[in-house]
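Lecture notes, continued. The same structure-token format from the folding unit now serves as the input rather than the output. Read the line below as a description of shape only.
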């Protein structure tokens, strides 16, 4: 057991620093790198976070703990005839070892609870409500209001964004009922939420009537039907899910990655593996991307396919809208095309401007790649599509030439996306001369009139848009 603790001492200390809200930026980064590189560290992390969530959600031991106590505890080796059994039951042995510090946690808890009641502690704040109504006990809750543990809240209309004290960002769609359990955990009784978890909030927990979700630094959605059946959908990164057992027994954990989803009913039946479905979270995802509205033939996607080369991701019905980067700080000055207003002269359609280094932006890629052949192998008819995007903040400019795309894929694009394929290599990405893109007077509404020739030609229409980010 001493060997086990020594081997995992660093991961245990880092986890408790995170749980206590005392971890530095470098410690968060170290933890993140350990979880990515070491499967054993990931297993240890999930175990510790799950135990921590159990304690929090049962409202027994919410107080802080000093991670240095771990290395100071005296561990007594079991008799020789018991060591073999202890190795066979490693998780239980590890649980008992970690629980050696729980009496100290209890002491901290009683000190903490003597100062304030744990059942009514401020752990989050309402950051924004869009055309919505948030209530608690039929009383309306307004923007910037604190949210407390021990209360049930209802999102009766629209969409609400809450910021957890841990740094996790949660978007809830109406109708939804939720309860805050801790500065880094929420219980969703009914409805849908999406969560974006920064490095500082790694280990964020969502509990539903049928499952518990532990984040590993990611973007994901949770949906709870009125019968308590819940689904977890991962858009980026990883989460660990487990059924909430009504009776003692083995609780199998499921590691989900981007593109994966799971349904757990809570009645003891086997979980159902699914494919991520963004349509269950449409309003929340657009709100998270700071898109107010889409009109016409435009469709927003939270996540991007692994390949966007010619012929990889085609449609004759929609122009795809992807968010490539959120709150990106530009590492250098960037020359961009100034999208013209309706009725602009030819000279006004050729104006370029500089976005200075250090500007915070949200980056979107608009993508149209009509099928190059129909089901019978004949050239596909011409594709003509149009629509409007209403952004919350002004558009600063865009990139529309092939050279501009390739020059910025590394800094503005997604590292995991292949923007070309081997068959067609660097086939065209720029919009054609006949494709119109127009910007409203307030610089927030972009209108598109795009087309692609039939005739079986190879090529895509794309523009990369830079939008001002929320400060």
């Amino acid at each position: 057991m001493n060997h086990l603790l020594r081997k995992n001492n660093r991961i245990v200390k880092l986890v408790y620093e995170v749980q206590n809200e005392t971890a530095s930026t470098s410690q968060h980064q170290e933890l993140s790198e350990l979880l990515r590189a070491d499967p054993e560290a990931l297993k240890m992390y999930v175990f510790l976070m799950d135990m921590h969530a159990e304690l929090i959600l049962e409202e027994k031991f919410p107080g802080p703990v000093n991670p240095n106590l771990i290395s100071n505890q005296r561990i007594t080796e079991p008799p020789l005839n018991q060591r073999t059994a202890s190795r066979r039951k490693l998780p239980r042995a590890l649980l008992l070892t970690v629980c050696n510090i729980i009496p100290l946690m209890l002491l901290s808890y009683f000190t903490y609870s003597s100062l304030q009641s744990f059942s009514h502690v401020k752990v989050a704040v309402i950051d924004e409500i869009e055309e919505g109504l948030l209530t608690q006990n039929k009383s309306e809750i307004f923007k910037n209001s604190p949210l407390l543990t021990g209360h049930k809240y209802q999102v009766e209309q629209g969409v609400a964004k809450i910021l957890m004290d841990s740094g996790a960002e949660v978007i809830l769609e109406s109708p939804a009922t939720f309860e805050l359990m801790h500065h880094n955990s929420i219980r969703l009784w009914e409805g849908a939420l999406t969560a974006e978890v920064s490095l500082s909030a790694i280990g964020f927990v969502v509990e539903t009537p049928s499952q518990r979700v532990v984040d590993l630094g990611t973007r994901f959605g949770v949906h709870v039907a009125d019968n308590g059946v819940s689904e977890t959908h991962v858009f980026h990164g990883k989460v660990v899910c487990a059924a909430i057992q009504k009776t003692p027994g083995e609780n199998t954990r499921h590691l989900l990655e981007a593109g994966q989803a799971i349904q757990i009913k809570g009645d003891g039946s086997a979980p159902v593996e699914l494919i991520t479905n963004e349509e269950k979270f449409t309003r929340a995802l657009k709100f998270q991307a700071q898109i107010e509205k889409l009109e016409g033939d435009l469709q927003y996607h939270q996540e991007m396919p692994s390949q966007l080369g010619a012929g990889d991701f085609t449609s004759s019905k929609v122009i795809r809208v992807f968010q490539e980067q959120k709150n990106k700080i530009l590492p250098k000055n960037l020359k961009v095309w100034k999208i013209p207003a309706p009725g602009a002269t030819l000279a006004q359609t050729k104006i370029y401007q500089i976005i200075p280094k250090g500007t915070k932006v949200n980056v979107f890629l608009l993508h149209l790649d009509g099928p190059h052949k129909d089901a019978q192998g004949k050239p596909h008819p011409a594709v003509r599509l149009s629509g409007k995007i209403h952004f919350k903040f002004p558009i600063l400019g865009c990139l529309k030439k092939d050279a501009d795309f390739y020059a910025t894929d590394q800094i503005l694009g997604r590292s995991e996306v292949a923007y070309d394929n081997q068959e067609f290599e660097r086939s065209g990405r720029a919009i054609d001369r006949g494709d119109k893109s127009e910007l409203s007077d307030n610089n927030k509404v972009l209108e598109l009139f795009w087309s692609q020739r039939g005739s079986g030609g190879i090529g895509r229409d794309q523009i990369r848009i830079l939008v001002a980010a929320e400060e």
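Point for the exam: The two ends are 49 Å apart (CA to CA).
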